[in-house]
Amino acid sequence: MDKLNAAVVGATGIAGQQFVAALAGHPWFEVTALAGSERSAGKKYVDALSKGSSLQWFADGPVPEQMRSMVVVDSSQLDASKFDVIFTAVESEVAKRIEPLYARTTPVFSTASAFRYEPDVPLMISGVNLDHASLIEAQRKNRGWEGFVAPIPNCTTTGMAVSLAPLAKFGIESVVLVSMQAVSGAGRSPGVLALDITDNVIPFIDGEEDKVIVETKKILGKVDVASGKVADAEIDVATSCNRVAVREGHTESVFAVLKDQPGLDEVAKAWESFDPKLGVPSEPRPFITYHRDPYRPQPRLDRDACNGLSTSVGRLRKPGRFYQWTVVSHNTKIGAAKGAVLLAECLKKKGYL
Amino acid sequence: MDKLNAAVVGATGIAGQQFVAALAGHPWFEVTALAGSERSAGKKYVDALSKGSSLQWFADGPVPEQMRSMVVVDSSQLDASKFDVIFTAVESEVAKRIEPLYARTTPVFSTASAFRYEPDVPLMISGVNLDHASLIEAQRKNRGWEGFVAPIPNCTTTGMAVSLAPLAKFGIESVVLVSMQAVSGAGRSPGVLALDITDNVIPFIDGEEDKVIVETKKILGKVDVASGKVADAEIDVATSCNRVAVREGHTESVFAVLKDQPGLDEVAKAWESFDPKLGVPSEPRPFITYHRDPYRPQPRLDRDACNGLSTSVGRLRKPGRFYQWTVVSHNTKIGAAKGAVLLAECLKKKGYL
Amino acid sequence: MDKLNAAVVGATGIAGQQFVAALAGHPWFEVTALAGSERSAGKKYVDALSKGSSLQWFADGPVPEQMRSMVVVDSSQLDASKFDVIFTAVESEVAKRIEPLYARTTPVFSTASAFRYEPDVPLMISGVNLDHASLIEAQRKNRGWEGFVAPIPNCTTTGMAVSLAPLAKFGIESVVLVSMQAVSGAGRSPGVLALDITDNVIPFIDGEEDKVIVETKKILGKVDVASGKVADAEIDVATSCNRVAVREGHTESVFAVLKDQPGLDEVAKAWESFDPKLGVPSEPRPFITYHRDPYRPQPRLDRDACNGLSTSVGRLRKPGRFYQWTVVSHNTKIGAAKGAVLLAECLKKKGYL
Amino acid sequence: MDKLNAAVVGATGIAGQQFVAALAGHPWFEVTALAGSERSAGKKYVDALSKGSSLQWFADGPVPEQMRSMVVVDSSQLDASKFDVIFTAVESEVAKRIEPLYARTTPVFSTASAFRYEPDVPLMISGVNLDHASLIEAQRKNRGWEGFVAPIPNCTTTGMAVSLAPLAKFGIESVVLVSMQAVSGAGRSPGVLALDITDNVIPFIDGEEDKVIVETKKILGKVDVASGKVADAEIDVATSCNRVAVREGHTESVFAVLKDQPGLDEVAKAWESFDPKLGVPSEPRPFITYHRDPYRPQPRLDRDACNGLSTSVGRLRKPGRFYQWTVVSHNTKIGAAKGAVLLAECLKKKGYL
Fold first, then answer.
1. Number of structural domains chain D divides into
2. Record: contact C293-B53, CB cut-off 8 A
3. N or C: which end of chain C has fewer CB within 10 A?
4. Do B223 and B89 fall into the same domain?
């Protein structure tokens, strides 16, 4: 098969760099354009990343060879119609402005929150709720677009939602989530200062808790094809989001009430046997990595399981009415660019691009 | 008033050092003996703390002048009858053996868990459940002791319990607690290695969760004078205990269902106006430090409020059915030696020593 | 004595806040104006520090009561003639512009590097080279000022220079310095990201090494009254400056060749007996804290000695041709605002203000 | 070629685990025995590593499949004659006792310091001083061994020595080294506590500085075949060893006086073109990774270059009489087990096993 033409927008930023790294040598997508701000436009990619003699490159490995000399395009000037797919990693305000322009002609996969809460926009995690892709028809019709916008959820939502997906069959009544989030989630401008987080926990991340609550209900909800909307899952979600001194990988303590009262063995089996059979290049195998060692998962040890795409779950127990467990999910891999690429692969497989 | 004669047992250990620091210059208690293991016995305190030319002293400030030259006594040989009060900071197995010997004649305040779960032993936090001291009569009668054993709770229990005490009047039905605990809680042998906790969270602390559940119910329970026992509070308690890269100060995300559905203002007021009027030298004022800045409390900024004896509470909100907040409590101050000294002061005031 | 009228310029920044904290309740200086950028001007100090409901205050303790409601003045509009002394904590570019305006009428103590390298500007550390104050006459004459500018050195220079001062009598031929610097030295905009320094060392601090070399030679040099200049000390200085994961307190490994080949006891005695007898309120006693425990000084344990104004020195040895030792110096206390206040006290005592 | 039979002694310890990981699937060496203490002997390897349900495995990746069920042998009972090569990772005291027993029949590669300073024992780093292998003949003759003992140097020595090797041709007169060492170098019993190193630097590592000085001179010295000894290099070496909050990877600030006064370009070229052409499986290519970005090398970014076997060098400059640079070297890879395996490969190639 011919590779699809892909553009990365916001390519010089930290999240955009992760798209660039994730797409280098990708078997299905060929990056043929890198777009950025007006300031970066016209420069070679590697020059746009440079500050004096220092290279501001933060993704794993070196800058991919084939993209070093690519000339960065102004994202406002990008001719979307030339691409089969566009990956965007921009601030929400910018996303609101440019993603609709691109979506006129082209599928857009976005890490921004701008369109996550629109009724006709599916909020998908590969392997969890790909059936929500059926909303795309409504989206196209409502907005007169040939393409579409498919945002991925907040990275904190992703970890818990993946751990909940195999348990949906037991009837999830309520969940309590306390996150211990990595500093990379705050990006680099301004990011989290060492002055603030060394020897410390910061118990508040502005806006994060609301996102987790709304997104979890939407993701675990059901698409109503007639109305072209998602009926939110009727799950009581409570959350407390904290920043801890970890570079990468969100850790989440989860408490859930499950209606069917499955045995712990059944729950463990639900995770261990969970296999969405995506059949796409980035598919993590296993999709969920289940641990029996009570000291696992730990972010440093488990965040990179299957290149950061497998979700690690452990510490399953039920001392009272709650099923309890711990999740580690790589916030800047499955929770960001790599998660969006995996989603694009899945939608490609389903024929949406 | 004449000062009471006090002994510190386990004085060379990290928790014992905190007793030594907390009692230096104390207006009511005079440390007249330091006891330790056979290995330390017979040495000057400052020599028992030395390893070559390096002083293994870990409490705040220098070794108190008056205790530097005190000769350490073998804790097995300590003549308890010479003391008005004994403070012990030893392993649980040792506590089981020596605390009953001391308690024959003398009140013992202990950081060990050995006796916490005995029906006739009160588990008290100053300002929270001092009325449980009435159990001491039953304890003396049951065991034929003139003294008594008064353990303090686990440091993780303490933070949450203090935050719950002022809310008991609203009817606490259930609580969920996720702790992010400081490494000092694990002590120094072996303690938490930098190798393990740097850039990491460890989602398990052996035995900790059970302690928090059992202790919280006992502390918030009611003493039944007739039976000489505590009727546990009928609160559903669920907890997940995590270790984070913080030196001192436990951070706790709490979720609670309150029967009376008070307004948030009422809850805030309950904390702000909480004043147990202990009337003792170490009493923290305010007993609870309430924060309106959503980024507070933080362990690095708030653990030392009122010398580590005030409990910091903030982030109050009720987005769903749970009242939610964050607690910071100094695990090795109010949660250990200083908390035990404060308790001893309160029992002195109440006439128990 | 009546207190001197003082203004703090750059009062809302992190270094300016430290001036505010250091000057609260000062026995000689009374802060009667706080100046900041145009953006802060006209706001109450506490409002200028606020970002939503969060207070951006980073110095020790709370915002001093008497300064909370003080209205911030635009630093460009400050009428310097109203003050007896001005403390500035601004970027070098700003300092170049505003400090000469203030100095027309008023002594200015500055943390900025703008004037450090001017021949007629003394670069002083209290207790080390206060005799350089005699340059002030030349400065006034050259520039037609009634006041003067007295910058303090770079914080990395300060630690080493204090440790060298008592050894000058032995003839310092050369020094090699490797610094392990705290993140607070980089301030907060942008500061050092946790992403970059967690589990890491950054081996480069732009411009720092040149400053240390030039400043050390100037500080240890001799004032030539006739020419109104400092003759740099003829010491070969080599340095490597590194950033480490420490919040506060620079650690410095120093190697020195001393001409007179003193015994180690003589060197230790030179430090232990060093007493500049400043006779001013902030004078640290001892001025140098000398450690014999080979594991000391450590930044976490020793940075706050004498409120961050005592310089800690230890690990003295001479395994080869170098005398070697380790210094810990509080970069944002003696190395910044508190060091400038101490200097102002000394110059007040000497009659310069 | 048939693989050589290899035994790993001390296989359950942290350094021994790294041998196990390094040798899994090795093309030349086949691990046919794992030896440990009496306590581990008789257990399956994976059971010997287990503590309850938690696996105490600290090397990269999972426990190699083929070694999981291998039964651990008591290292005192190991029949060395059955092996072509033995890798030991034990405490120095144990090494002194058991390595001579093994060496009677078999070449022993050791991470212990026990034999490093013996005149007839070569202290080799692959690519640096493999010619010192000629000492083995003297060693065999002196001791009546068929095998030999080949210890690797201290991990701190290794980094600097590799960076110096290509510069030997310029005439190294003196070096000053300040190390900022990772906590993994202290192992796990007791290791470095998070309590001690969080927000801190520890300026002393017992015995380390002497090792670096002695070893550097020996490694850069010349073998005198007639006497069967090494004539130490006549280099003045001074060093200060510090512990910093880094998990893995030692960072070293080096200052050197080079007799020939080469240009900086010549020095850079010496590193960039340095190619010992080892021709063995683990050979890192490049052997030295030279950086021009002044912010490099950094331990977190550069320690794993070429699987932890390439030495990273950067920040070359000569502001005064010293050539100065920074080294990052992976202390538990090239500085421990992997370095010993690389050395064994080289000696195999040279016919010593």
1. 2
2. yes
3. N
4. no
